[in-house]
Hints:
By secondary structure, the protein is an alpha/beta fold. 57% of the residues lie in helices and 11% in strands. The strands form 2 sheets. Strands 2, 3, 4, 7, 8 and 9 form a 6-stranded parallel sheet that branches. A 3-stranded parallel sheet has the order 1-6-5, covered by helices on one side. The longest helix has 76 residues, at 2-77. It starts with a helix and ends with a helix.
Amino acid sequence: MEHGKSSALPQGLLVGLVGLAGALGLGVVLPINLRNADSQTNQNLDIKSSAATTATQQRIEKLKASMLKTWQQEAKAKGLSYVVPPSLQGVVINQATLSPSQKIIALTFDDGPWKDTTVQVLDILKQNNIKGTFFVVGRNLKLYPQLAQRVVTEGHAIGNHTWNHFYHYMNPQAAAFEINSTNDLIYQVTGVKTTLFRPPGGMMHNGLVAYAKNQKYSVVMWSSDSIDYNRPAVPRLVGNVMKFARPGGIVLMHDGGGNRTNTVKALPQIINNFKKQGYRFVTIPELLEMQGKNQKVIATKKPK
């Protein structure tokens, strides 16, 4: 009996060891397989997530394109093309010739759209229920198209201020690029066709104005310069504007092109000063329309 007992122990031990080894082997294999399965699942999820993101981006782009198309159609339907009287096409305009009793003034803003300042200017104009005119730079419009859309949707006028805001002399081809590229983008972004042009720096003899006049643009200058590009103190800036204010006047300010903090601070005071003097605010197209009507009245009064 002792012999049988002693020979049975090793077999039991052997069975136990085999079982333990099997269990250990299974324990080693299972985590590896599970990890592989998890990795495969994560890869599948990543692929699905990436595909979903791409699909979402495509839907967003389609929606944006659809919204832009709808906006352009609505803009055209609303007649957002500034019809300038024939007598004021292809000419330089510093101000409208109105009677002293016609207390009308046009606020204009150059060099935008600008990330922060344009928004602040638009907010101030909206608070005061005033419409202005914005002469945009093409390369800035490309960066902030949504600001130009806001300009137009809130009832302001928009004009061309070239693509690069260069001052140097340009041949007709270069001038055409500067003006046409900007006008094309204005139309693409807002649906507006504008024939309002303002030369950078008021430069009259570097090729831009000659091209613009040849293309029947109204070259819109100004009669009252804020000189805000020199960043004067707010009281001086306000004084610069009011000094030459007159009925039919055009005020030059800037919403872009640099630090326009003082312009934003001065704008409410400028508006209040004009209101106290009985002025009403109009856009450049409205001002030119009034000028055109006045010219017709004068013409009909001339002796035959």
